[in-house]
Design a protein that fits this description.
The structure holds two protein chains of two kinds.
Chain A (H helix, E strand, L loop, with lengths): L1 H9 L7 E5 L5 H9 L3 E6 L24 H6 L3 E5 L5 H11 L4 E4 L5 H4 L4 H7 L4 E6 L14 H7 L20 H24 L4 E5 H6 L5 H8 L15 E6 L2 E6 L9 H10 L5 H4 L7 H5 L1 H15 L4 H9 L5 E3 L3 H5 L2 H5 L3 E6 L4 E6 L4 E2 L17 H7 L4 H10 L3
Parallel strand pairs in A: 1-2, 1-4, 2-3, 4-5, 5-6
Antiparallel strand pairs in A: 7-8, 8-9, 10-11
Chain B lengths: L9 E4 L5 H11 L3 E6 L24 H6 L3 E5 L5 H12 L3 E4 L5 H4 L4 H5 L6 E6 L14 H8 L1 H4 L14 H4 L1 H20 L3 E6 L2 H6 L1 H10 L16 E5 L5 E5 L3 H11 L13 H6 L1 H12 L4 H9 L5 E3 L3 H6 L2 H6 L2 E6 L3 E6 L3 E3 L17 H8 L4 H9 L5
Parallel strand pairs in B: 1-2, 1-4, 2-3, 4-5, 5-6
Antiparallel strand pairs in B: 7-8, 8-9, 10-11
Helix pairs in contact in B: 1-9
The chains are: A alpha/beta, B alpha/beta.
């Protein structure tokens, strides 16, 4: 087992990179990306309670327990866990010892909190000039909103994305699965690697300051340019695109998304018409008339409604799988609006072994979860260890910086670790 | 002088449209030398996609294209011609990274496949961002940003509880999940290369990163057998939480995560008068009666201006935010202005126009964003002469033979 772990980690691209992670709410996926690429990521948690994400549902077997949370389990693969109370001077001293051995510190505390604990970047870099500190916070380290209260939903609002998400005739609805935090983490991982690569050459680290609000702005497509150049203020457009032939439509067992009409999609229209004509779809010949080449008509209510009537009449008794294959074999961009079950049954994901599994010690279950988000030929993604139990690696990590058994026992008795 | 953390790295960039171009923008804005290879007869569709300067179409006038291609140079090559392919291979030979987002097999057909160009270039990092990966039963399927959203689960999971899926409004996978995961993969590969001297092939399926972001919802099915459904704006620990109407058709988002925040919200909006008698100070009571809370809050928020209410509630440390529109983000948002998010770059045909800066600040070697988007083929001569060592005569001859189309 030990040999196998060593071999695997030595072929991971970030093997040898050491990360101290202080995430509490927003930074976990960033730590996961680094850990899954082979970095040694040590998650530092508050003694007894652990990181707050441990309390997030759903739970494995619905058991409300700090070792059973699915978000905790998913976002902390390949990490180690130590407990350390940074509210106490002794805890901070140990943290400073760890800093001397680290390449990266990842944190998501409110700006100023680490500074109040004497652990700001400026203080850290005195201990270890090559260390990179990545801070993922709602608005960044400084500025008029730096101390504003926020969560994922309010950040979607302040980044301008919420306003254009959802139905036109209702209040907006958020993107699923906390995408504001996810974006902070994705850009955080990029920023971390930029600084790590630079530190390899210069011998100096730096502070990487990620604003989640600003990350959300990146999801707005061409909104800012449309505003500046054409004075257009983008609004919500529901689940349909602006042209006939595009949007989400119901079928026998769910919904499909199709992109076959208007602008970039116009080239797929004739494939759709051929498909419908061969299949003897009622109204197919109507779709063949020249007016469907006219963007104005495609944009009109009449055009959109006519398409919807003809498409839905055909699709209402067809399955997502049938429509997906039927459309794609004729080069029409149509896909199932997949739920969890459809995704687990997706043959392409299966062929790429997208899902993987690992044992969960506390329940004895084998847990299936998404694996590699991309394939690297020389340094494949690997799941080396499941998310750690709280404080699982205290002995190994603290003894590596020279703390002895009796010291550890004393610190544990005092609640520092 | 800061040249950016990636100074000294060269990218032969064959990407186009959305996700690919945004990936190489990240590398370019942080100092990599990115040379975008374009083909006149098969233009990057974004060059012909709105918005245009003054609303007038033109290959050098698209703001959409410009934003995705800051800090890059452009050369044109008609890659159907053998001589053009030779030049492309010469460019790759002098590059650290190759990036493309064509369908599987396209680069091979152009004589630019990984096996061929890496044979004498073992440390080359080669990123291929296809729709569904290089191999497998659906690897030839066509797709776009929203077909990825459909396949990944984010479309199904986003929207109100009681209506069909609505998705997330933009081609989200193209803008953040795919560019960031791809850039992260490339940077990780560089780290590995510095240790070992070894390059590699990155087979990137554009459906997978967004699917990975749905991990917790997918695992509720793999572990507990439950198919996750849409939850609107609900959150397991926060209630009330939602998007509420304000004056002038505007919206405010409010999320209550603690009993103290609830008490303060109640005080500011006088909600108790509108609610039936219950112990609303208990989180459990609030979580069980979201709808009643939402209705009461909506009745009160609609009397307020969204931004003033945001600031009033923020003074009490309540997570509250006006749902800003793009005009407000560009013109008025004090935090984005403080961060310097909007960058104006001077483009020779478009003049000074707006670009997104990367949302990351590096304290010592920040992004440079040292040039606007390139004109189509603007740097063809420069690259051929200065980088590839061709003489002016050779370049003129190739031009007359139609290689630079």
């Amino acid at each position: 087992m030990t040999t196998q772990q060593t071999t695997l980690s030595s072929t991971s691209p970030l093997a040898g990179l050491k990360v101290l992670e202080l995430s509490n709410r927003m930074g976990f996926y960033c730590g996961k990306l680094l850990a899954d690429m082979g970095a040694e990521v040590i998650l530092i948690e508050a003694p007894v309670t652990g990181a707050s994400i441990r309390r997030d549902p759903p739970f494995i077997q619905d058991k409300v327990d700090r070792e059973f949370g699915i978000p905790y389990f998913y976002f902390n693969t390949n990490k180690r866990s130590v407990t350390l109370d940074l509210e106490r001077a002794e805890g901070r001293d140990i943290f400073r010892q760890l800093v001397k051995t680290a390449d990266v510190i990842l944190e998501d505390a409110e700006p100023g909190k680490l500074s109040a604990q004497g652990l700001s970047y400026d203080e850290i870099k005195v201990l270890n000039p090559k260390v990179v500190m990545t801070s993922i916070t709602p608005f960044g380290q400084t500025g008029p909103y730096a101390h504003y209260a926020a969560d994922d939903l309010t950040l979607l609002a302040q980044g301008g994305w919420l306003n254009i998400m959802g139905y036109e005739d209702a209040q907006p609805t958020q993107a699923a699965c906390e995408q504001a935090y996810a974006m902070g983490c994705m850009f955080g991982s990029v920023g971390t690697m930029l600084a790590v690569l630079e530190a390899q050459q210069s011998g100096q680290g730096q502070h990487v300051d990620v604003s989640i609000q600003e990350c959300v702005v990146m999801a707005l497509e061409n909104s800012a340019q449309s505003y500046e150049l054409e004075k257009k203020i983008r609004a919500r457009s529901g689940n349909s695109q602006r042209y006939a032939g595009s949007g989400i439509f119901p079928c026998a067992d769910g919904y499909v998304y199709i992109f076959a009409g208007g602008m970039a999609a116009s080239r797929f229209w004739k494939n759709l018409v051929e498909w419908f004509q061969k299949a003897g779809v009622e109204g197919a010949d109507e779709l063949a008339s020249p007016k469907w080449q006219d963007l104005k008509y495609m944009h009109s209510e009449e055009g959109k409604q006519t398409f919807e009537r003809i498409f839905c009449n055909f699709a209402h008794n067809k399955s997502m799988a049938f429509l997906y294959e039927g459309a794609q074999t004729r080069r029409i961009p149509l896909c199932p609006v997949s739920d969890a079950k459809a995704i687990l049954n997706n043959q392409q994901l299966a062929a790429r072994s997208f899902f993987t599994s690992i044992a969960h010690t506390a329940s004895g279950l084998n847990i299936t979860l998404p694996g590699a988000p991309f394939h690297m030929s020389q340094t494949p993604w690997s799941l080396r260890r499941a998310a750690p139990e709280l404080g699982q690696d205290n002995d190994a990590v603290f003894s590596s910086i020279g703390l002895r058994r009796e010291q550890l026992d004393t610190l544990a008795a005092k609640g520092v670790i | 002088m800061n040249k950016g953390p990636l100074a000294g790295l060269r990218v032969a960039d064959f990407t186009w449209i959305g996700a690919g171009s945004y990936t190489t923008k990240i590398l370019a804005d942080f100092g990599a030398e990115v040379i975008k290879v374009e083909t006149m007869t098969h233009l990057d569709p974004l060059r012909n996609t709105a918005p245009f300067l003054d609303g007038k179409p033109g290959v050098n006038r698209s703001g959409y294209f410009a934003d995705r291609n800051s800090s890059k140079r452009s050369m044109v090559l008609d890659l159907k011609m053998e001589q053009a392919q030779e030049i492309a291979r010469a460019l790759i030979a002098k590059s650290d990274i190759v990036a493309n987002n064509f369908s599987p097999g396209t680069m091979e057909k152009l004589g630019l496949g990984y096996d061929r160009v890496s044979a004498d270039h073992q440390d080359l990092i080669y990123l291929s961002m296809s729709m569904q990966g290089a191999e497998g039963p659906h690897s030839r399927y066509v797709g776009f940003g929203l077909t990825i959203a459909a396949l990944s689960g984010i479309q199904y999971l986003s929207g109100p509880v009681d209506r069909p899926p609505v998705g997330t409004g933009t081609n989200y996978p193209d803008h953040v999940p795919n560019p960031c995961h791809a850039a992260f993969a490339v940077l990780s590969a560089i780290y590995h290369r510095r240790k070992t001297g070894q390059g590699q092939f990155i087979d990137f399926s554009q459906t997978e990163p967004t699917t990975a972001l749905m991990g917790t919802a997918l695992m509720d099915y793999t572990v507990n057998g439950r198919i996750a459904e849409r939850v609107g704006n609900d959150h397991p620990h926060a209630a009330p939480r939602g998007a509420y109407p304000c004056l002038n058709g505007r919206t405010i988002a409010i999320s209550i995560h603690s009993d103290q925040q609830w008490l303060d919200l109640d005080r500011e909006l006088n909600l108790s008068d509108l609610l039936p008698k219950r112990d609303w100070s208990q989180a459990g009571v609030r979580l069980a009666n979201r709808k009643e809370l939402d209705e009461a809050i909506s009745q009160m928020t609609i009397k307020h201006d969204a931004l003033s209410l945001q600031n009033t509630l923020q003074a009490k440390s309540i997570p509250a935010a006006a749902a800003l529109n793009v005009a407000e983000l560009v013109e008025d948002d004090p935090q984005l202005a403080h961060r310097g998010h909007w960058i104006k770059l001077d483009h020779s045909e478009m003049g000074k126009t707006i670009y997104n800066a990367p949302p990351i600040r590096l304290s010592r070697t920040n992004f440079t964003m040292n040039r606007p988007a390139p004109l189509l083929g603007e740097h063809t001569h420069e690259v051929c002469r200065d980088l590839l060592g061709l003489s002016d005569e050779q370049i003129d001859k190739l031009r007359s033979e139609g290689v630079f189309n």
